[in-house]
Design goal:
The complex is a heterodimer of chains A (170) and B (160).
Chain A: H1 7-19, E1 24-30, E2 33-38, H2 43-54, E3 58-66, E4 74-82, E5 87-95, E6 101-103, H3 112-123, E7 126-128
Parallel strand pairs in A: 2-5, 6-7
Antiparallel strand pairs in A: 1-2, 3-4, 4-5
Chain B: H1 3-7, H2 16-25, E1 30-34, H3 38-46, E2 69-73, H4 78-90, E3 96-100, H5 101-106, E4 127-129, H6 136-151
Parallel strand pairs in B: 1-2, 2-3, 3-4
The chains are: A alpha/beta (170), B alpha/beta (160).
């Protein structure tokens, strides 16, 4: 399907493909948004370039997906906005099932801190060089990753502690 | 025109249980454990239209040490469960508990790993209120059921 990019995004995509030809895997549009799939090794370089040269100073969200495929099972999606130019772009990275890990972008946007912790909490995707790589919602001794497809909807019975119903007797 | 004129210089006999239950059942102060949208209906329950003060329960106590009835209004996740149980343990006996709405009673539509499937998993619930959220009159009904329960309590069980 041919792309219907506006002038601004066309320029961004052209410069990206020119500069990072080896790392841009796919560019496509869906529901009026533009998605760029990039190689996992290049994510910080490309993010830094977009932030510094194209004013994508606002990282709206980082989230994961379990594609449940035999190869490149996990996906990390970055949602970037340029407030000055009123443009939005999505970056996508595919990661393998075994030991999914990617470089953190907290050095570029502080907002990535909690987003990446949430992605780690829900999918078990590790972010290297993250300042505080802990779970954010689930208890720290929780052993599962709830948004992975193999995790049962109602959870694992007994995996999260309920309060004691017999109060301490002093 | 008060009670004194009706009684004159006479006296009345009663059981201490009747007196205590009368006092307790008409002053069941709620501990509002508002966790979700049910809390909005709980506010209407306390407000002038439905007027919980008709039943002596208008005083929402935000200190567990001054309250008698805990109204769990909303869905309870595992993290919150510990806080609720701790507040419940701080409430002085005798105490009662209302599970308000589908979520507090059974987990409701929150059928997932993070939500406790019914707050009776860790609290001794006296009355369950159906609805999502229940209307304030349904909560009043639950309160009246608790009043009925209080009125039938005995301090001493007789051997029969």
């Amino acid at each position: 399907m041919p792309l219907e990019l506006n002038e601004y995004l066309q320029k961004v995509i052209d410069r990206l493909t020119e500069r990072y030809a080896d790392s841009i895997i796919d560019v496509y549009q869906s529901s009026g948004d533009t998605f760029v799939r990039i190689a996992p090794e290049a994510n910080v370089d490309i993010c830094r370039y977009l932030r510094n040269e194209h004013h994508f100073i606002y990282l709206v969200d980082v989230f994961g997906t379990d594609r449940f495929t035999s190869e490149d099972r996990f996906e990390v999606i970055y949602n970037l906005i340029s407030l000055r130019d009123r443009q939005r772009i999505f970056l996508k990275v595919w990661l393998p099932e075994e030991n999914p890990a990617i470089e953190s972008v907290t050095s570029l946007w502080n907002s990535a801190n909690w987003f990446e912790r949430q992605t780690y909490d829900m999918f078990g995707i590790r972010f290297t060089n993250h300042p505080d790589m802990r779970r954010i919602y689930m208890p720290e001794d929780f052993e599962y990753f709830p948004l992975r497809k193999e995790f049962p909807l109602l959870g694992i019975p007994g995996s999260i502690e309920l309060p004691s119903t017999t109060p301490d007797i002093e | 025109m008060g009670l004194e004129t009706a009684l004159g210089d006479g006296y009345m006999t009663s059981k201490i249980d009747s007196l205590v239950n009368w006092a307790r059942s008409n002053a069941a102060w709620p501990m509002p454990m508002g966790l979700a949208c049910c809390a909005i209906e709980m506010m209407a329950f306390a407000g002038p239209k439905y007027d919980a003060s008709r039943f002596g329960s208008e005083v929402m106590r935000f200190s567990p040490r001054q309250s008698d009835v805990m109204i769990v209004a909303g869905w309870v996740n595992y993290k919150m469960a510990h806080a609720i149980r701790r507040i419940w343990d701080q409430m002085p006996d005798p105490k009662w508990c209302i599970a308000m709405g589908a979520c507090a009673s059974t987990g409701g539509m929150h059928r997932c790993y993070g939500v406790v499937q019914g707050c009776d998993n860790f609290l001794p619930v006296d009355t369950y209120v159906s609805g999502c959220p229940p209307r304030p009159d349904a909560l009043l009904h639950a309160l009246m059921k608790i009043q009925d329960k209080i009125r039938t309590e005995h301090s001493v069980m007789l051997d029969t």
